[in-house]
Amino acid sequence: GQNFYVILAPTAALFGIEGGDGSFEIQSNTDWTIETDVSWIQVLDTLTGNGNLFKDYSVEANDTEFSRVGRITVNDAYLDIVQGGGGDKPIAPSETVAPWEGGESFTHELTVLGNPAIAVDEDWVEVTSFVSVDGEATLTFDVDENPAMEERLAIITIGSEMHAVRQLAKPLVAPVLSSFSVAGGALLTRDPVVKLTPVLSEGTMEEYRASESISFNDTDWGPIGNGAKIVLSDGWEEKRVYFQARNSMGESGILSDTIFLLPPPPRLVGAFYSDVDGFSATLICEPGHVYRILWSEDMSNWNTLEELTAETAEVPVVDADAAGGNLRFYRVVCDDEL
What we know:
By secondary structure, the protein is mostly beta strands. It contains no helices and 31 strands. The two termini are 41 Å apart. 22% of the residues are buried.
């Protein structure tokens, strides 16, 4: 299936007490719906759509003395809007732009009255000191590394004022494969359709290709969607699967893993019993393999009825000695289990 996404740019915006107009870009490959959590933010025109689009919005003037925060949400993506308040000395919203790597000892200077309470709404920002002398204050804080490839916003509240910390997104890099396994690392499988599990140490994976040929000349790139898989080639033997990932920044290296493909389990079908002819059935199997037909009256002690090398995919099985006797149970063992 397709991997649906909605991305907004920017993810944070600052407005003074007078309000104003703004815009944001929607990047999407699916249907979306726009919502706001406050009445003082209005998104213009239609609130539903599909695909990529630029949208305009307006922010009303703030007639209170306090700063405030509102959010525009588009499916699971959002844009946070911080607006300054009035008060005795109106201070426009301020912002620190932190690099994605984060860092220590970011500072913000401001004018305060008294000893205001300080709070942070995100745990990736830590206030380390607050020094105030004659109403002039310096706020110092640390910012953690941003592990996501989208911007994020934290709000530091100092009394009635707010300071925004907008951290840049981790840059997109080509994927780096740290490990890869077939069927979760299993050694054997009877199902030729196997799940592939790549693990990335860097970047993201938008597409992948997998093949039993290191040149990948028998396959194309495909979307990762709901997961990676491959259909193993015919032949009951060890298979080596090669895997590679890519995104818009480039391709990963190639890793491989092996698994042994076993023939599908044999089964007896069309079983029939009569007091005259005994037991009969058809063995569904793989030509060229050795099979042993076993019978038991108690499912504990098993006896060999016949051992054969299959020449066709359907082999008749007959147990004439079962006629008129006790109830018998039957099972088949393939050569890979003998």
